[in-house]
Q: What sequence folds into this?
């Protein structure tokens, strides 16, 4: 680059602050006056080959004359203002410990994707206090596609309070990443969840799925003692089994912060009087604690249960929900009183106790005789019940271990040990803890006594779905929804979130269905959030000619079931998914990742197909199997699926079992 080109280059930076632009112009003017000097010593630290991706370009420079006030880096002629004054102890070891030498480092964030497959020239210039700008180093490097695998740094210290440690990172390969294997101290732990959240836009590259390339997992560190140091490693594999170099993350475990004797500070008095105005022959007054009233599996479970219970039991209902939603109107139509409490505080003991007292005050005139808490997040309800001296039932849907749930729900370091213990006490004090799947029940065997534990498999309104299915015209519905009559429709139902793995499913479908213009994937459940937007961007990037469709959350899913040929799920955390049972009622076979509880309703090779979780390659194979299956074979599997759900998962039988449990607990 000649000095006369510099002002034109700056003119291509319209977003640069005006004062910075003026300063840079004057600095470039200095470059015209002096292009060489022996007062500057420095270099650009760059390898002969770098990834064609957003990169951090680094170097160092110091002056034996006038002080350096700024550094410019020219990347193939494009100018970048560097961040300077970065600590470089390696330079100080070689050139002395003066301040200017020790803090001689600089760096620039530059997007190198545009230079893929090219050699580029890098020039570094220093701006000195006497108004001179001088190029002090020039080099070249080749930009090529290179795999990337790294952990994100931990945000805080690790203590023995944590039990589980959430780690994340980025995995990119020239072909689609099939899986990321995580090991602790050399021993394999599990595969990480892929495409877990959106990658910042500056980090996108030309490699597949770069816009949503983050992986994450929760590692059990309960066996890691205080004062010890441990190593996590990650290894990424593509669909052919090729692997990257291993990424490593070390962490040390600190002692527990400890739990003060808060019981002496937080007097658990002042709730409702212990003597209740009980009416054995009157309606049973039940306080229902819910985490959310929006659309979701756990929420619809509660709504369906209440709708059936009011037909079987003389009951009055008061619902206290942390988050409002569309199901509120339906519950009020059934006759329930509904209030919204806000989120239960988990990080502060005093706020937690105040929260429980506020609910007790709200329901004091209702005088509940029993509490029904729905989901692990509502366990504070059973803790409240123990203080009100009334029985309680807790319904658990989440297939997380107890300690793992806190991190999954609120992240690391946000749950005070006192509150964790109150939840643990809430589990042990519940009159009954209901599980919808055996897999989830086994996960809680260490914290829920056998005498408390009840297995009541989940149910749906099969009769209503069969009636709709028999009367619906699939071709008319397809026409109204813009789906070709001849399409082979894969349907995925579920709110978009990382554990549901819609992004990974999209990748697998694009790979497996290449060349099959009749294959269509419909993903119902998009929301207005970052993950949903990232999934949509990923779908656009896959370039499958509109064969993958993202549909927003809808209340009535029946038309979508009616036009589908197979239900598909890549979710890695389940218990007994409602969407699978509803699809089976419509006579659809199921292709699913074998998450906890799924094999209890889907029989591999009979009512559907099961593949390992968190494995793109396995999912590709499963989709390919479906594509090779004839329509007649799918019908046979769908009929078997329908028979299964009719026999074992009707909500009437589920509600009757639950009504018997209510009476048992009341007595």
A:
């Amino acid at each position: 680059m000649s000095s006369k080109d510099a002002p034109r280059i700056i003119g291509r930076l319209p977003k640069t602050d005006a004062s910075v632009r003026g300063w840079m112009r004057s600095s470039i003017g200095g470059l015209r006056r002096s292009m060489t000097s022996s007062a500057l010593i420095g270099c650009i630290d760059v390898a002969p080959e770098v990834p064609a991706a957003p990169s951090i370009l680094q170097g160092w420079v110091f002056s034996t004359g006038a002080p350096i006030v700024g550094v410019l880096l020219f990347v193939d002629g494009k100018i970048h203002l560097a961040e300077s004054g970065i600590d470089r102890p390696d330079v100080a070891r070689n050139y002395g410990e003066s301040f200017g030498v020790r803090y001689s480092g600089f760096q620039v964030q530059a997007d190198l994707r545009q230079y893929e497959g090219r050699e580029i020239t890098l020039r570094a210039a220093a701006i000195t206090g006497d108004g001179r700008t001088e190029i002090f180093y020039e080099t070249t490097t080749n930009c090529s596609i290179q795999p990337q695998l790294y952990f994100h740094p931990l945000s805080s210290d690790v203590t023995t309070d944590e039990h589980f440690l959430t780690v994340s990172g980025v995995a990119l390969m020239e072909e689609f990443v099939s899986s990321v294997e995580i090991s602790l101290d050399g021993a394999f732990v599990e595969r990480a969840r892929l495409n877990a959240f959106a990658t910042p836009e500056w980090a996108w590259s030309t490699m597949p799925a770069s816009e949503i390339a983050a992986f994450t997992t929760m590692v059990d560190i309960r066996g890691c003692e205080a004062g010890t140091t441990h190593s996590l490693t990650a290894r990424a594999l593509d669909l052919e089994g090729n692997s990257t170099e291993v990424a490593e993350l070390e962490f040390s475990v600190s002692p527990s912060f400890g739990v003060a004797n808060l019981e002496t500070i937080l007097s658990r008095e002042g709730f409702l009087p212990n003597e209740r105005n009980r009416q054995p022959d009157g309606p049973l007054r039940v306080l229902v604690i819910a985490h959310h009233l929006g659309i979701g599996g756990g929420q619809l479970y509660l709504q369906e249960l209440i709708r059936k219970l009011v037909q079987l039991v003389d009951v009055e209902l008061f619902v206290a929900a942390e988050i409002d939603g569309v199901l509120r109107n339906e519950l009020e139509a059934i006759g329930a009183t509904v209030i919204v409490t806000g989120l239960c505080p988990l990080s502060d003991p005093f706020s937690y106790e105040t929260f429980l007292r506020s609910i007790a005050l709200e329901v004091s005139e209702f005088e509940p005789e029993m509490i029904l808490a729905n989901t692990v997040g509502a366990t504070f309800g059973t803790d409240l019940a123990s203080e009100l001296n009334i029985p309680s039932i807790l319904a658990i849907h989440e297939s997380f271990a107890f300690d793992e749930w806190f991190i999954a729900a609120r992240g690391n370091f946000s749950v005070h040990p006192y509150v964790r213990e109150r939840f643990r006490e809430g589990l042990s004090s519940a009159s009954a803890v209901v599980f919808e799947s055996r897999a989830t029940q086994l996960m809680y065997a260490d914290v829920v006594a056998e005498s408390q534990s009840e297995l009541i498999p989940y149910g749906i309104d099969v009769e209503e779905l069969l009636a709709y299915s028999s009367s619906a015209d699939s071709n008319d519905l397809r026409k109204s929804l813009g789906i070709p009559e001849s399409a082979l429709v894969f349907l995925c139902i579920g709110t978009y979130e990382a554990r549901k793995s819609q992004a990974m499913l999209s990748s697998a479908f694009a790979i497996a269905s290449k060349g099959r213009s009749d294959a269509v994937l419909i993903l119902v459940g998009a929301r207005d959030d970052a993950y949903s937007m990232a999934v949509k961007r990923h779908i656009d990037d896959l370039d499958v000619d509109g064969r993958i469709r993202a549909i927003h959350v809808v209340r009535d899913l029946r038309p979508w079931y009616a036009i589908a040929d197979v239900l598909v799920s890549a979710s890695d955390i389940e218990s007994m998914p409602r969407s699978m049972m509803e699809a089976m009622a419509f006579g659809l076979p199921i292709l699913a990742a074998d998450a906890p509880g799924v094999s209890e309703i889907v029989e591999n090779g009979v009512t559907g197909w099961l593949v390992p979780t968190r494995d793109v390659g396995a999912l590709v194979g499963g989709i390919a199997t479906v594509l090779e299956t004839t329509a007649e074979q799918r019908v046979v599997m769908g009929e078997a699926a329908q028979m299964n759900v009719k026999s074992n998962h009707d909500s009437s039988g589920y509600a009757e079992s639950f009504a018997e449990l209510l009476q048992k607990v009341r007595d």
